[in-house]
Amino acid sequence: MVRKIKKARVKELEKPDEFVTFFSKIVEYIGKNKKQVLSTSGVVLIVILAVTGFLYYSAKMERKAAAILSQGADKYEKAIQTKTPQEAYKEVTPDFNSFLENYSGKKSGHNARLIYANICYNGGDYDKAITLLEQGLEDFKTQPFISSLILNSLGFAYEAKKDLPKAIEYFEKAVSNPDAGMKDEAFFHIGAIYSEMEKPAKSEDAFKKIISDHTDSLFIDVVREKVSG
Asked: Is 0.85 topped by the overall pTM?
């Protein structure tokens, strides 16, 4: 059973930091299914490597690239402790750009794009995050679970840009994938966006999918109130 959260916390999930929350939920998923204990420091790096099975590389260049990527992620984690997300983003941008120039085609380059996309999102550069995530769809096209996470992340980015139709497009792509994880979160955002667009029938349909298909969802109580209200 997924742990319930307070209604106040559910409301916080509707704010612009859903992308960060989204990656924290991947940690919970891995904890349940992979029986691994992950720390919250450098969590995005660890999660991506764990999910894709690239914690240990056999090739020398991949090991080298992974080490450099880890340094870049650690640098961001330290920067974000004392600086704004925008300042931390600017500080590590040269590092990630250099890394992608040298290792773009490697497995660690694929991981770096997703990590950097998260940093760009937090820093408010949604267009850059979208570009990286779209490339990520190609990088992880044979891995449905990761692809579904990327589709949801694209939804978050377009939602933050206030391009609501495009956000819905990506959230709906995510829920249409039979192997997708965290569909309840995508349905929640579809419902919230349709409500903002003043399309109550479509909003209610999305919320009802959570009630009918995801009874252990973190959002179940709040969507029941929305539907009954």
From this structure: no
Alpha-carbon distance of 133 to 112, in angstroms, equals: 11
| Domains of the chain with CATH codes | 39-140 (no CATH), 141-229 (1.25.40.10)
Q: In angstroms, rounded to a whole number, what is the distance separating the alpha carbons of residues 120 and 154?
A: 12
Q: Is residue 32 pLDDT above 80, yes or no?
A: no
Helices (H), 58-182: 60-82, 85-103, 107-122, 126-139, 144-160, 164-176
Q: DSSP state, 78?
A: H
Contacts of 107 (CB under 8 A, 6+ apart): 52, 54, 57, 62
Q: Give the tens place of pLDDT for each residue, 92-101.
A: 999 999 999 9
Burial class (CB in 10 A: 0-12, 13-18, 19+), 29: middle
pLDDT at position 82 over 70: yes
